[in-house]
Amino acid sequence: MEDAPRWMKQTERVLDGLSFLCMLIASIALVVLIVTFGWLVFGRYVLNSTPTWVEQLALLLICYITYLGAAVGIHDNTHLGVTIFRDMMPAKINSFLRLLIDIILAAFGLIMMIASIDLVVFGWSTLLPMLSIPEGVRSLSAALCGGLVFIFAGTRVAFRIACHVHGKTYVERGLI
Amino acid sequence: MGLAILLGIFAVGVVLGIPVAFAMGIAALTAFWYEGFPLLLTFQRSVSGISVFSLLAIPFFIFAGELMLHGGIAMRLVRFAQTLVGHVRGGLATVNIFSSMLFGGISGSAIADISALGSIQIPMMKERGYHPDYAVNVTVTSSIAGIVIPPSHNMIIFAVAAGGGISISKLFLAGVVPGILMCVCLAVAAYIIAIKREYPAEAFPGWKAVWVSSLHAVPGLITAIIIVGGVLSGVFTVTESGAFGAIYALLLTFFVYRSLDWEGFKTSVVSSVRTTAMVMVLIGFASSFAYLLALYQVPDKLSSFMLGISSEKIFVLLMINVMLLVLGMIMDMAALILICTPIFLPIVKDLGMDPTQFGIMLLVNLGLGLCTPPVGTCLFVGCAVGRVKIEETLKTIWPFYLAILAALILITYVPAVSLYLPSLLID
Amino acid sequence: KDWRGWNIHVEDYPVSHGMEAFMAEVEEKTGGEIKGKVFHAGVLGSQPDAIEQLRLGALDFAVFSLGPMGQAVPATNVVSLPFIFKSIPQMYELMDGAGGAALGEALEEKGIVALGYYDAGARSFYNSIQPINTPADVEGMKIRVMNNDLFVDMVNNLGGNGTPMAFAEVYQSIKNNTVDGAENNPPSYESTSHFEVAQFYSLTQHLIIPECLCMSKKAFDALTPEQQEIVKTAGKNSTDLQRKLWGEREAASMEIIKAGGVQVNEIADKSAFQAAMGPVYDGYLAANSDMTDLVNLFRNAD
Ligand code: NA
Ligand code: NA
User: How many separate domains does chain B show?
Assistant: First the structure.
């Protein structure tokens, strides 16, 4: 998007940074997952004492890997989907469908965030076994994902409309 | 009515092109809303569908697979396969299939297979005068052998979906013969076409070269032995084996092969996060979806409907296979395993089929779906790697479909194909 | 109204029959105004999920084990303390009286109405080495326990090595001597075939963890006073039925394991085991001083 307005380019840069941050956190979580599990195996079979917190921590980490990674997938357009029918449509309908999908995803993200925050609050008094941290911390990952999906898909809605108004074509991020 | 909303919204969402995982989430959310349930139930189901202990093996297997690719293990496997079976007519196709068999024994992920092996082998085949469509067809269809050759994270998803009570060890063993059988069927198909199209054979490099290349490949193959051996011996749980295998692969590529640098490590971690998130988020929203299917008693209803048509085992199994094939065409594997297992498992159990055999049948069937449009991840990735249009490959892929179907029929109707090996080695 | 009931057990199980009987009685006595269906075999999710769903009103009734319920309702952890009940009959008496009432209050604070306490038997040790008669026999044994520090401590204080492990892995692990044994009630010990690989069953009865027939407070409050009475009575009747069926099931399992060559030994005097639990209680009370009265209520009952 060479001739895109400045605010769009700047927003894109902020979104890229956000997505990078998510990826960084998720990657660290994956490395921690692997290292702590190595520690578990070592503890159980060599030291003869099983660190009981590892499994519960792992179940927490996997939620953050999944939901942060999934949000990045929305930003980068890498989720599995059937595009074959959409691609058969004429260009105008196609770009309308893409706008519609982004609107639906943004709405879903918003509901996901709000409902998951409810879940966080509801689960705050329940403790995760072995870790003694609130169960709500787990659902927080879903709330984050919802918020990020809302931001990523929502800005795309704005971009599409802005491009349409200025009579330019919106360039999609690379699909797999 | 609620069920119609659930299925209808999902179908419309998929056709529109909404990512499948989110289409399931949106459909479930709408159905919960229609039923007057708290909306947060959608996300509670999704979060707890992910927080399942056995599923933790998935990121480990995926990470091990990525290390194969970025740490040079895949390359060594291909070289080994090439020295061993490259000299038959159309040899590179046989090499392709054989190396998928070996690689499947490590990663258990068809996508990893295609991106790891396909990116080496498809260009190699094109260079030696094979048509691009043929190269892609062989790569795509052989990749699904990895789904049933142990270890396989899809087997773990199946065991979770079956509600425990299914031994992972038995599943692992049960997959070996069907996996080899599929490869043999594919090799036959590939060989016949190779003769027709007069593809070349490679020169046999001599036993010394076979010996040397096998020495290079063996440390990589030990990853599989660690994972499978750990589970079969009962020393490790499947999750621990996965972690141990991943750590072994990391140490091997970093210290022994010295082919993994910091960049390769970063790439492996990031790709693993992407793939894990893609698979797990599907599993999560499929759990919300499956909860509603259970609530609407779809398993009971479908079962009495099917058994009402016929209670003949041969026919019911045929019906199930056809339904799975159709579903496999439009949906992805992990989600379908979670959704279909509780529906079909009780039916086949009533018919006296061993749940383990059913698991293998299900996986092969859904694996075939990965190679078919419109949702065929393997086909898409294969075509992208080979730079061929999907339509192009579809014109010539049917002999390979037939080969897998032949294997599927044997797996469905001859229990011994899956169950003989476990019966020998367990108890 | 259409009620949804959650149950982790398969259709043919004492708990399941108890729940079906409860629903049938409610349906009959309310003249069909309240109908319902029990979803067996955990098709609606795991227990922690179901507890949340019940509290939210997405489920109307359920039977929960009080063991893992402690995460949501900490007071229920009290029945996970080893030897807190002296025997099954004493558990019945206490749970139908003051103990059950105290737990019921704690549950109600979290939006759960307790209608009755089902019997889930007593858990005892089994292993592949030798009969356990005194704590000295546990010395050095690696025993699988449920994933809870309390149970790890319990085995460690007997001189063994408590090892948390997924339930599905236990059979193979005993067979390979990765662990020497585990602990469970007779029906589970029998139905999982663990008795084939661990042939010594010593009736320590160290854990008696009842299950609770629960209703969502949201659903309960929506009933008329007459309907609430009907539901309470049905809960009590189904509890009686379940306990009777449980006794029969347990006896049948004992027959099967004895026929399978298991050496079963009773432990006449459990005081040595109980005495070894001192540190477990001290540790628990140190971390949960607010539970002191409740623990004493249970521990000091005859
Ligand atoms: Na291949
Ligand atoms: Na497909």
Answer: 1
